[in-house]
Design brief:
By secondary structure, the chain is α/β, with parallel strands linked by helices. The chain has two domains: 168 residues, Rossmann fold (3-Layer(aba) Sandwich), CATH 3.40.50.720; 191 residues, Dihydrodipicolinate Reductase, domain 2, CATH 3.30.360.10. Helices cover 35% and strands 22% of the residues. It has twelve helices and 14 strands. Helix 1 packs across helix 11. It is globular and about 65 Å long.
């Protein structure tokens, strides 16, 4: 079957009225004209699903009351009509059950982070994905930025030398006040252990930090010691976390995350210092990469320039000076996903190592970070292995 002659058909679980990230996924998936949304169960409330389906021009027969019903019904459709993959954008308490149901029905899966509710679920999901051979993608979207991909090339090529220090921070003021008591759904599930698991801010933004720094450096964290804090009364989960890191290559690092940092919006910043050079990249100014070399003037590299790597060029859409950002980076993840799914459909599946997007293994890594951070905090900020 030549899947390149048509758009891939996408289904979605979650992302109904009142949601944030579902709309982002829909824009990102369709930006490059490779995907069309044809089915969904957008909410636990069937009426919400029906309204969302109408707004998105979904056939009413394919706006399903439950994800279980959706998996069965889509699997029973002719091969030329059923969805090719499902995107899961619910709170993470339900990620595993939904992913498992669609994997067992034979569908590829795109899942928002954190990947699961627990580390045990993550371990089981890794086994399910490996056994099935389906394409599973996790949307740590910041790895889709062209200059992040160029930074990765700088370190993988050895040009920056041996990594000595990494500083990563993700600062927001999203949870500065108790939005969950004011009916804000996005805050409510994030601060609820029954929906988020044992990690709050560390699951919501900390997993992005770990994924980004290990993606750029290619150097995994081997140990960490951490301290977590909760400042607002009546909250059970962490709002602020600081950690020291040790890396396989001998380097050291600092991770600082907060969702109660007054005045901060989406302050994800990565600094990596090597023996031959260093970089700084900030998510709020993603079209610029600062490059440092000892004894030389600082350089600012900009997106869509001929001096950048092939990896950066391949993830760039428009000429320099026309800003690209969050949505384009998200869409780049979907470009990689669609290629992997097409290759699978056409009988020449890619190896996981060839994927240009985060995988189920990255998802497990994020869950491991959450659990190890909590373990360290509960033992007096002791060093624990990753």
């Amino acid at each position: 079957m030549d899947s390149w002659k048509r758009k891939l058909r996408m289904g979605m679980v979650g992302g109904g009225q009142g949601a944030f990230i579902g709309g982002v996924h829909r824009i990102a998936a369709t930006l490059d004209q490779q995907v069309e949304l044809v089915a969904g169960c957008f909410s636990q409330d069937p009426e919400n699903t029906r309204i969302t389906g109408r707004e998105l021009y979904i056939d009413p027969a394919r706006a399903y009351d439950t994800y279980e019903q959706m998996a069965v019904a889509e699997a029973s459709l002719p091969e030329g009509e059923r969805i090719d993959f499902v995107t899961i954008v619910t709170p993470n308490v339900s990620h595993f059950a939904i992913a498992k149901r669609f994997i067992e029905a034979g569908f590829h899966v795109v899942c928002d982070k954190p990947m699961t509710y627990s580390l045990d679920e993550a371990d089981e999901l890794v086994k399910l994905v490996e056994k099935s051979g389906i394409v599973f993608a996790l949307t740590h979207n910041y790895t889709g930025h062209p200059l992040v991909r160029h930074a990765r090339q700088l370190f993988s090529s050895g040009e920056m030398g041996t990594i000595r220090k990494v500083i990563v921070e993700y600062l927001q003021d999203f949870l500065m006040v108790a939005h969950e008591k004011l009916g804000q759904k996005q805050a409510a599930w994030r601060v609820d252990p029954a929906q988020s698991g044992i990690g709050g801010t560390m699951g919501d933004v900390g997993t992005h930090c770990v994924n980004l720094l290990e993606y750029v450096t290619g150097d995994p964290i081997t140990e960490l010691c951490a301290d977590k804090s909760t400042f607002l009364p009546d909250r059970a989960l962490d709002e602020d976390v600081n950690a020291l890191l040790r890396f396989k290559g001998g380097g050291k690092g600092v991770l600082s995350i907060s969702q109660v940092a007054t005045g901060e919006e989406n302050g994800l910043t990565l600094r990596v210092y090597g023996s031959e050079g260093a970089i700084k990249w900030a998510q709020e100014n993603p079209n610029y990469l600062e490059l440092y070399r000892y004894g030389e003037p600082r350089q600012t590299l900009t997106r869509s320039q001929g001096y950048l790597s092939e990896a950066a060029a391949a993830s760039t859409r428009i000429p320099p000076g026309h800003p690209e950002g969050y949505l384009e980076a998200f869409a780049t993840i979907y470009v990689g996903v669609t290629e992997a799914i097409r290759r699978h459909i056409d009988g020449s599946p890619m190896k996981t190592a060839e994927y240009e997007f985060p995988t189920v293994h990255d998802g497990r890594r994020g869950m491991q970070f959450i659990y190890k951070t909590v373990e360290s905090c509960e033992n007096g900020s002791a060093w624990v292995p990753m």
